[in-house]
UniProtKB/TrEMBL annotation:
SUPFAM superfamilies xref list: LexA/Signal peptidase (SSF51306)
Keyword Transit peptide tagged: no
Places the protein is found: Cell membrane; Membrane
EC number: 3.4.21.89
Molecular function, one GO term: signal peptidase activity
Source organism (scientific name): Wolbachia pipientis
Transmembrane domains' residue ranges: 12-29
Protein name: Signal peptidase I
Xref: InterPro entries: LexA/Signal_pep-like_sf, Pept_S26A_signal_pept_1, Pept_S26A_signal_pept_1_CS, Pept_S26A_signal_pept_1_Lys-AS, Pept_S26A_signal_pept_1_Ser-AS, Peptidase_S26
Length: 242
């Protein structure tokens, strides 16, 4: 006697595969593409990054379409100064930004003559050379910045793009359950220094940027409205973000 085994319908198989992929994207990792240079040289245009969704817990923005099923965060953990995060800004909730966490709840932040001050302490930075922008060919000063908690990261200070609003700021008092964020390309970043971004509610954080999975050098062609990939950056494959 031959026993017949029932085959799972292909539609059901596809449904389960989709469910698994959606679960991974919602609860574990989510990929994003970097379209701008506000986080140079940490992140470059053409980078494809992965964020860990579980690092800070979950909010409605962890889910597709941001369903209004609960408020705040569950399994909440506060980010550290220096973490690179993806979030939805309050005034542009449909888009996603990536910046570095500078101020935590209760901190005071101020920029004086281009130097970052946290809680009235001037943050140490050391010149380490220049960053050469591959598109413009411009040379931009590079620094290593060290936070009070010991976290270190690179920043760019493009003196050719001086902005008085960002170079000398009032004191920012970070409210409860909010973060103050800035881009590493300090003079070329729309971030918490500006009123159209401002403080970021913890609820709006999507995840922590952990690695660059792939990265492509982009080039603008006259016949295309978009910059297109022209080369794979081999040195940025599975590149840890710090």
């Amino acid at each position: 006697m031959v026993l017949e085994t029932k085959k799972t319908p292909i539609v059901l198989e596809l449904f389960f595969l989709l469910l698994i992929a959606l679960s991974i994207r919602t609860f574990i990792f989510e990929p994003f593409h970097i379209p701008s240079g506000s986080m140079k040289s940490t992140l470059l245009e053409g980078d494809y990054i992965f964020t860990t969704k579980y690092t800070y817990g979950y909010s409605k923005y962890s889910f597709p379409f941001a369903p209004n099923i609960f408020r705040g965060r569950i399994f909440h953990t506060l980010p550290q100064q220096g973490d690179v995060v993806v979030f939805r800004p309050v005034k542009h909730i449909s888009v996603r930004y990536v910046k570095r966490v500078i101020g935590l709840p209760g901190d005071t932040i101020q920029i004086i003559d281009g130097n970052l001050h946290i809680n009235n302490q001037k943050i140490e930075r050391k010149r380490i050379g220049d960053f050469i922008d591959y598109e413009s060919g411009n040379s931009i000063p590079r620094y290593i910045e060290t936070f009070p908690n010991g976290n270190k990261h690179e920043i760019l200070v493009d003196y050719a793009n001086y902005n008085s609003v960002a170079y000398n700021t009032p004191v920012f008092y970070v409210p409860d359950d909010h973060l103050f964020v800035m881009g590493d390309n300090r003079n070329n970043s729309l971030d918490s220094r500006y009123t159209n971004v401002g403080f970021i509610p913890m609820e709006n954080i999507i995840g922590r940027v952990s690695i660059v999975g792939l990265s492509f050098k982009l080039k603008k062609f006259s016949w295309s409205p978009f910059r297109l990939p022209v080369a794979l950056r081999l040195n940025r494959i599975i590149h840890k973000v710090i």
